[in-house]
Design goal:
The chain has 113 residues and is mainly alpha-helical. It has one domain (8-102). The protein is 59% helix and 11% strand. The chain has a two-stranded antiparallel ribbon with strand order 1-2. A hairpin with an 8-residue loop joins β1 and β2 (97-102). The radius of gyration is 25 Å and the shape is rod-shaped.
């Protein structure tokens, strides 16, 4: 009777360990998915800002000096509660550098992805 009880306990522990491993794998996969989705959202936002800047250049003959100009004149909506925006206009005829970082993201604001 002792062997039968011992094998039940062993089976229960094995099942529990298996469930914990599945749970850990699932949580890791969800975290990875969220991170990837966040990177895609920030890349889309950067591209949207560039498109607004190009539209401004086409209509005004110069790239906008700042994001406030795009918001005021072209209706660009920025979510400053969720993102940090870096917009650097070097010259009026050179496409500005645009970086969008989701708040809480651990990516440095300079080119490393």
């Amino acid at each position: 009777m002792g062997k039968k009880r011992g094998s039940r306990i062993h089976a229960a522990w094995t099942g529990l360990v298996f469930l914990v491993l599945i749970l850990c794998w699932t949580m890791g996969a969800l975290g990875s998915y969220r991170e990837q989705a966040g990177k895609e959202r920030t890349a889309e936002m950067e591209e949207t800002i560039r498109q607004y800047a190009v539209q401004c250049y086409a209509l005004e003959g110069a790239y906008p000096p700042d994001l406030a100009h795009l918001a005021k004149e072209y209706g660009l909506v920025l979510d400053e509660d969720r993102y940090f925006y870096y917009y650097s206009a070097f010259a009026s005829n050179i496409l500005p550098e645009v970086i969008v970082i989701e708040k809480g993201e651990r990516r440095p604001p300079w080119g490393e992805n």
